[in-house]
Branched-chain amino acid ABC transporter permease
Amino acid sequence: MGSITPPGSALMRRLRRGAPGRNRLVLAAVLFLAFLATFAVDWAVSPSAEAATSAPSASSTPASSSPAGSGAATGPCTVSPTNGCIRGTILDSDRKPAAGIDVDVAGAGGFAQTATTDDSGRWSVSVTTAGQYTVSVDQSSLPRGQYLTNAADAERKVNATLNANVGQIFQLSDQQGATTTADTSSVSAARAWQQLASGIRLGLLIALASVGLSLIYGTTGLSSFSHGEQVTLGGLLAYVFANQLGWNIWVTGIVVTLLCAATGYLQDAAIWRPLRRRRISLTQLMIVTIGLSIAAQYAFQYFFGASTVRIQQGNPETVTFAGLTLTVQSYVAMAIALVVLVGTGLFLAKTRFGRATRAVSDNPALAAASGIDVDRVIRFVWTLAAGLAGLSGVMLGLVLNGVNWQTGLQLLLLMFASVTLGGLGTAYGALVGSMIIGIVVELTNLVLPGDFKYATALVILILILLFRPQGIFGRAERIG
């Protein structure tokens, strides 16, 4: 944030603008109603959106098991309150996907399933009982000239839970017994390099949503707990358009971003502006965002179910570059996120409306006294924030190969930690904080198993509040 120019200066005179026209509200309402009509038609012609995703072609989905019993795995695995997934990837000595390898999963009660890796090296098995399972690779099915990096690691014990994924990665080598004493789960330079790339990817995607969250706080002082549901909305809308209606993924991304932006516009028009005019306290407004978050989660679960849905049914292709193996969707998502974030930064720094936004964020009362339409700026911020969060949901759904009703809720802690670390109310701080959080969270996975890595964000948040509550780019005290 820069210093605010006194009233009557050239900057403030350029920022004076009139009240917004009603045509924008009409346009947003038309877009939202068009989406509702499309959504209603789609669900009317489809008996069950969830059923449509449960029967993709065998050649386009990774293998998984039937819910119980024994035998070969059939159909995709999706998590639900009554179902969990044990899944993983097998990479060859060149860190490319290894197809046609059998993975056996055994558990209590005679449970035994076999999954075979697909063209992307992925496999998955469905379980309906939480507990410990044994995952073993059938070494006789390995490609010629390929061996497990650690032969003793062919069999692993995993603890599976319902409504959750448990991941396992097996690495192959072209030398038999070359590293039989090594543990594939140990820290190595190659694994750290791979996790660093994953952290940069996660940081960029979190930043898309965090920048909007920070702008909302900067202009209104409100911490929006419903912002995560804007991310979920973006992913689920992308599923409807790209998967159910068969739209092109690029067209889907643009339309979803615009629709999510329209929901932000309508939220401020219908909820936040009337509440601001009644001078409702920030604590009461925050409680409203919590209630809106819960209502949105139940709405998502009602319409889409509790299972994870995929935006694109085809298995993602992987590309190895500079020793890193990521999906094509990951590279594209990172590029789009970087371009959008740079564009947002330039808009805030170089344009008249961007300077007005920064002025309102720095001192709303002084900005209003200088002729800036504060309500108009806040309406724009809600619109921009919702659009960026929706785009983040689309990108996350593609990168994570799925989205469900609580995707945004799971990321909300990371977003708040990013905003707090960078400095409350600063867009640039949210970007830097997101990158730090994303990298630290993924690197933590080198030593902590599974989703324990997300607890790192909570630790960072506590340390920030203890030692530097204003964050990296924040100021200990505002003057104005």
